[in-house]
Amino acid sequence: GGGGGAEEEELTAQETALYDRQIRVWGVDAQKRLSKAHVLVCGVNGTTIEFCKNIVLAGVGSLSLMDDHIVTEDDLNSNFLIPHDESVYGGKSRAEVCCESLKDFNPMVRVAVAKGDPSLIDGTFIDRFDIIVLSRASLKTKLFINDNCRKRSKHIAFYSVDCKDSCGEIFVDLQNHSYLQKKPGGEPEQQELKYPSLQVWKFNLNFFCRFVEIKSFSSCALLFCTPSLFAPRIRFV
């Protein structure tokens, strides 16, 4: 990953042509912001590779993968970025193998391997990114990285995502997020979202789930939670 470009930097003719269909959906400004975003994914597994594939195809500025675990046969069952050929993945880390596969998805996106242990990365390293996605890490590591993201002078979004069997969880900390909301017959109004840190969300009893939705698909149950200061509401579908 690396630093972002100048705000006034325009999309190249090649980028405009390649991303034409999605630009029609979310506009040029959104595509320009995406092309300047630098993302770090710590933990390359069946959950995060889908995210990696999608942002590479969409034209993210750069993607760095951190996962020093050596590829095993078990990884082949859940990671479509790892070729079923031991001569390709043998002795290599998940990050190394997936990095090469992702480069083929979109040669215009910089994909690189970031070697190291997520629990030991420092603030200077974190400053290189705009978004950090963490998976299969201990709670201690999640708290450590989320806290470091909040201490930086620049705005760094933090995501923690995990999935095991039929259960999954995701935590999102965008810190403060402003957006315009247009009401019928009125002028757009600026809205402000304030996200709690993982430390607050996990340990402050004043924060509850404002909305919990449970959907059942045969033996599969999905749980969606939104951190809030309000009392919990539960809806069964």
From TrEMBL:
Pathway it works in? Protein modification
Checking InterPro entries in the record gives:
ThiF/MoeB/HesA, ThiF_NAD_FAD-bd, Ubiquitin-activating_enz, UBQ/SUMO-activ_enz_E1-like
Please provide, alphabetically and separated by semicolons, the GO molecular function terms listed in this UniProt record: SUMO activating enzyme activity
Task: Name the GO terms of the biological process aspect.
Answer: protein sumoylation
SUPFAM superfamilies (UniProt xref): Activating enzymes of the ubiquitin-like proteins
Cellular component annotations (GO), alphabetically ordered: cytoplasm; SUMO activating enzyme complex
PANTHER family registered for this protein in UniProt: THIF-TYPE NAD_FAD BINDING FOLD DOMAIN-CONTAINING PROTEIN, UBIQUITIN-ACTIVATING ENZYME E1
Q: What is this protein called?
A: THIF-type NAD/FAD binding fold domain-containing protein
Q: What is the lineage of its organism?
A: Eukaryota, Viridiplantae, Streptophyta, Embryophyta, Tracheophyta
